[in-house]
Amino acid sequence: MAVIEAPVKQPDVKKTPEEKSKKQLDQGFLVICWDDPVNLMDYVTHVFQTVFGWDRQKAEHHMLQVHKEGKSVLVRESFEKAEHYVHQLHKYSLQATLEPAS
Amino acid sequence: MKLLRRSESEVVFHLGKREHDAFCKLVDRYPMVPSDFSPLSRFADAEDVGGDQELLEESLTESKKESKTALLAMLNDGKHFHEVSRGWNLHLTPEEVDWLLQVFGDIRVGCWMKLGCPDEMKGKMPELTADNLEFYVAMDMCGRLQMLLLHSLRPSEDSGL
To answer: B40 and A100 in contact by Cβ < 8 A?
Structure first.
């Protein structure tokens, strides 16, 4: 007869950035902007120029990628930097996330 | 609202009296977008980013609270709005123009959410009623103001005006 052990409740400890998986940290995080049907194309271009310091051409390229393909990978960074960029993009009400680069 | 002049350090707009009233009533809606409107990550391990998500939301909430305070100050401090014969002149630094773009971005997206997140490109039209028409109008106004603000920042680039 199989014995089912009672589940052991782990302490409620959240991982610090240092404890995130080594693989993720090695490969970094992608900052992705997702398409939405409300933000104006020129506005999105301006946000990319402002947040990343890009020239108009590069910002427009990524804006069009978001518009046509539904998303664009904007940068690949450490967790902290990627989180900073996502926060900046959220301040402009853009749909942005960070995703493990693996 | 019209762009009167711009320099490296200042942009000046003119608003008629009714435009000034509409401007004040529009920014009074800020903030509209909830801080959890976008996840920090869609695919990362929730355990990895859960705490960061909370911090991000707290930070965004605090940032919008400060923005709201600054907005109220801008409307009443006598430094930004100067009354002229047929309305008001609004004096902004380029940084304040960018900040107002964020404000109108928030209101525009918030109104869009109130309308049920319509997507006209995919045939999901807004279902307009007497109750939600104001959000449609406010969303449109924000878009027009955003274009004007963008043009004032980058007049040499074609911003569609």
So the answer is: no
C-alpha distances (whole Å) from A11 to each of A6, A8, B26, B147 are 15, 9, 47, 51
**SS3 of A73, please?**
strand
Q: Which of A22, A31, A39, A40 is best to mutate for the B interface (most B CBs within 10 A)? A: A40
Token pair for B28: 């009074």
* Domain spans in chain A, listed from the N-terminal domain onward: 36-96
Instruction: Give CA–CA dist A60/A41, Å, rounded.
Output: 8
CB-based contact B40 A37, cutoff 8 Å = no
Say which DSSP state B24 is in: H
Q: Do B105 and A90 touch (CB under 8 A)?
A: no
Residues A17-30: tens digit of each pLDDT: 555 665 566 689 99
> What H or E segment, with its residue span, contains residue B111?
helix B94-114
Phi-psi region of A56 (alpha: psi -120 to 50; beta: other; left: phi over 0): alpha
Measured CA to CA, the distance from residue B131 to residue B88 in angstroms comes to 31
pLDDT digit string, tens, across residues B69-117:
999 999 999 999 999 999 999 999 999 999 999 999 999 999 999 999 9
> Is the N-terminal amide bond of B34 cis, ω within 30° of 0?
no
**Among B32, B139, B30, B101, CA closest to A38:** B139
CA angle A16, A18, A22 (to 5 degrees): 120
Structure tokens at B117: 């997140």
Q: Where are the domains of chain B?
A: 2-38+67-153
Q: Please state which architecture CATH assigns to domain A36-96.
A: 2-Layer Sandwich (3.30)
Residue of B nearest to A18 (CA): B48
